[in-house]
Structure formats: C-alpha cells, structure tokens
Amino acid sequence: MPIAPILLAEGRKPAAEHLAPLLINQGYTVVTVSTRRESLSMAQETLPAVIVLDVPSLRFSSRRFCEALRDADLAIPVLMLLEEEARIDRSDGARGHLRYPFSAKKLANRVTRLLPVPNDEVLEVGEVCLNLKQRRVVCCTRQSDLTPKQTSLLEVFMRHSGEVLTRGFLMKQVWDTDYVGDTRTLEVHIHWLRKAIEENPRSPVYLRTVRRVGYRFDSPKE
Which fold has domain 6-114? Predict the structure, then answer.
C-alpha cells in the first residue's frame, strides 16, 4: 500500500454509510475532509496518492475542484463516486469514475488502479500484465514489446478497465491533443495492441470497439 494517504472528500451522511472504514480495512491510510477549502488545503499539505470525491454527498462542484487542482499544479489522480444513474463526463477532470452501489473491494480496486506505478513494477488487469519500464506486455503465453505510445495507450485502457473511453479522451491522454478530426493514428495503435494481446485480433475479447463512441478494455478473467 502507498505511504501517501488517500484523501476522501465526503459530506454529511449516516455513520453506517461512511466510506473511510472501507478503505482503511483494505490497508489504506485515509484523510477525510468535507468542504472544498479543506480538500484543497489537505491536498497541498499531504500530497495524497489519490483523491476520492463522494460527489452525491458534497456541497461543492467536483469539476471546479479538479480545475483548482490543475491551477495549483497538483497532478493528483481523482476518483469520482457518482449516483447510480449519473452520466459520466470525461471532461470533468477525474481519472476514474465509479457509480453506486459498489463493494469495498471494487472501491479499493479502483483506487489501486490510480496509484502511481513505480518503474520497476508492472500493471496487471486479469491476464494482461504490462511492464511500464520495459514496455513489454504479457497476455497468457504471448509476450510483445511495445513502443512508448503503445505502452501509454495500453496503460490508459488498463487503468480504466471496463469503462467506455471516447476517441477524444484517448487522443488527449496519449497524444495531448484535442483534435479528433483524424483518428487514424489512434486506430493504427489499437490495431498494434490487438496484435500484441489478442489471440485473434479480428475477433477481440480484450480491446473492444464501441460503435460510434470509442473503445473498452475488458478482462474476461478479472
């Protein structure tokens, strides 16, 4: 578990619904706050590994909070917890989203995916294992070396496993551009990743296309 704490922002709610015990029981150190001012102050003071925003219980704008983090040059990943029917907005500044209801294990897994990964460690989702330092991916018995951009793209997918990612979101995360008029570069990289991890790239089971939207990384064995 990380040395840096998890910063949890949640508003008033019954004690039985508090989220801190769920994370503490998973081995995390948790600092709790409830207001926007407290959240920004503690983010600057403790430099948490991840910030968790319990959006339904908060009385401040989660989007504006993420903007304030960027203005303060605090590159801390944010996980937003949303109501069950809430629409996910990829432009809200969060690195991850999780809708209610969820288990303690699922919450901990989402937090873990956002933790900084040391260069000598690997990122694992199901049977896909990505070595970020060596830029090498292993899936079942297949092993492939990747380019830096392929590695970055696969890392984004693995950190957002099970989520539908738009082409615009992927272009921004990997190529740092808002231009989506021509996504051939992205499509070529998707093709290469499928050749690296799929048993049959023409019938992918891990890296799926979501028609008219983008792509989703699934791990059948997760």
Answer: Rossmann fold (3.40.50)
Per-residue pLDDT of the chain (222 residues; tens, 9 = 90+): 445 799 999 998 888 889 999 999 888 899 999 999 999 999 999 999 999 999 999 999 999 999 999 899 998 999 999 999 888 887 888 888 999 999 988 898 889 878 876 655 778 888 898 988 888 898 876 789 999 999 999 999 998 998 999 999 999 899 988 877 778 999 999 999 999 999 999 999 999 999 989 999 998 754
DSSP 102-123: --HHHHHHHHHHHS---TTSEE
Question: Using an 8 Å Cβ cutoff, are 10 and 100 in contact?
Answer: no
* Start-to-end C-alpha separation, the chain: 20
- What is the domain partition of the chain in residue ranges? 6-114, 122-217
Q: Is the CATH number of domain 122-217 1.10.10.10?
A: yes
Measured CA to CA in angstroms, residue 115 lies from 48, 105, 106, 180, 188 at distances of 10, 15, 15, 29, 28
Q: Which two tokens stand for residue 2?
A: 């990380």
